[in-house]
Design goal:
CATH architecture of the largest domain: 3-Layer(aba) Sandwich
Structural class: alpha+beta
Oligomer: single chain
Protein name: DNA polymerase iota isoform X5
Organism: Enhydra lutris kenyoni
Keywords: DNA synthesis, Transferase
Strand content: 15-25%
Helix content: 25-40%
GO molecular function: damaged DNA binding; DNA-directed DNA polymerase activity
Strand order of the largest sheet: 4-3-2-5
DNA sequence: TGGGGTTAT
DNA sequence: ATAACCC
């Protein structure tokens, strides 16, 4: 784990084309003064009510995992490939002109020595990602994940405790440093709408009429992004806990027959069943998503979902029962609900999602609000991790 | 643009 | 079920 590098802070804002507004620490401005936190703690004299939130952003995460898996890759320009894209690359590669989400041909052209590894299977990335989150959870349980490579940690309590331990002479010797990012504006869709209003910089947004902005974007989005433009973000760090859904997808040039689709769906489902089995909880909903070929509108998807029949759910943990067959049947029904298989069709993506995860009914006598996942006895070489539920209702 | 994830409507 | 957002 100590091999996993964290992005140096100075790099966080500049290196990316993306909005640095989100990359900023979620720090409340001093003016939020009076409002007590959820814990309703007494704020110590001399300290503001500001929260302390660490934003931990792992650097070219997939590439780092690959270099740890295979140390021979270290020092070489490395790209992680998904389909025809280099989705991320290490710094050697970046120095030679490779960019994230560059297509493989351009990347090879820019950098003929580029070494490529396939990163379509996210298993190891996902595992390493949760190891990082678990490590951070040792500092504070309040850790919010964002994607596989970012975590927000609310360190407010830890910092307050440490400050209380300090002697006054130590306190006065404390110095705090930091820096401000030079921002650009926000999500893609909203950025487009803002640009239509003549808002292209954070300063534009700061000085724009709140009323007009509310009319344009709705009060919720308008007020939130305008506060964000001043660096104010009072949104809590919400512990992510275990995932709310498991999904696997595959994209391709063309899928135009039912058999073809069924084969792909079976592959996706098989991996998902492994994952869900290791997790220990049971999904109660299944969803199939497709993307149809079309020259425009490439980002649009359609999906159908349905409850998983209870007799299938029961079989889920039990290894020898065939749970594939009934679930593939369900998925193919969902498929035919979306795609008229008597007509020609052309799909470019299939995705299967298991969600609505519920904890099994293994309640320990009377303890309602704290219990563990059913662990694989004590011979735990399993992937099952125990976790606490935020909100619990147990089902079977 | 991949292969994921979340929340809001 | 979709749309928007995040990485």
């Amino acid at each position: 784990m100590e091999q996993l590098g964290v992005e140096p802070e100075e790099e966080a804002g500049r290196d990316e084309e993306e909005d640095a507004a989100q990359a900023m620490e979620r720090a409340e401005a001093g003016e939020a003064g009076g409002s007590p936190g959820v814990h309703d703690q007494v704020v110590p004299e001399g300290s503001s009510s500001s929260r302390v939130i660490a934003h931990v952003d792992l650097d070219c995460f997939y590439a780092q995992v690959e270099m740890i898996s295979n140390p021979e890759l270290k020092g070489k320009p490395l790209g992680v490939q998904q389909k025809y894209l280099v989705v991320t690359c290490n710094y050697e590669a970046r120095k030679l002109g490779v960019k994230k989400l560059m297509n493989v041909r351009d990347a090879k052209e820019k950098c003929p020595q580029l070494v490529l590894v396939n990163g379509e299977d996210l298993t190891r990335y996902r595992e390493m990602s949760y190891k990082v989150t678990e490590l951070l959870e040792e500092f504070s349980p309040v850790v919010e994940r964002l994607g596989f490579d970012e975590n927000f940690v609310d360190l407010t309590e830890m910092v307050e405790k440490r400050l209380q331990q300090l002697q006054s002479d130590e306190l006065s010797a404390l110095t705090v440093s930091g820096h401000v990012y030079n921002n650009q504006c926000i999500g893609y869709k909203t950025a487009k709408r803002l640009e239509a209003l003549g808002i292209s910089s954070v300063h534009d947004l700061q000085t724009f009429s709140p009323k007009i902005l509310e009319k344009e974007l709705g009060i919720s989005v308008a007020q939130r992004i305008q506060k964000l433009s001043f660096g104010e973000d009072t949104s809590p760090v919400t512990p992510s806990g275990p995932p709310q859904s498991f999904s696997e997808e595959d994209s391709f040039k063309k899928c135009s027959s039912e058999v073809e689709a069924k084969n792909k769906i079976e592959e996706l489902l098989a991996s998902l069943l492994n994952r869900v089995c290791q997790d220990g909880r049971k999904p109660h909903t299944i969803r199939l998503t497709i993307r149809r070929y079309s020259s425009e509108n490439h980002c649009s998807r359609e999906s159908r979902q349905c409850p998983i029949p209870s007799h299938v759910i029961q079989k889920l943990g039990t290894g020898n029962c065939d749970v594939m067959t009934p679930m593939v049947d369900i998925l193919m029904k969902l498929f035919r609900n979306m795609v008229n298989v008597k007509m020609p069709f052309h799909l470019t993506l299939l995705s299967v999602c298991l969600c609505n995860l519920k904890v099994l009914n293994t309640a320990k006598k009377g303890t309602i609000d704290y219990y563990l996942t059913p662990s694989l006895s004590t011979t735990s070489r399993s992937g099952k991790r125990s976790f606490k539920m935020k909100d619990s209702h147990m089902e079977d």
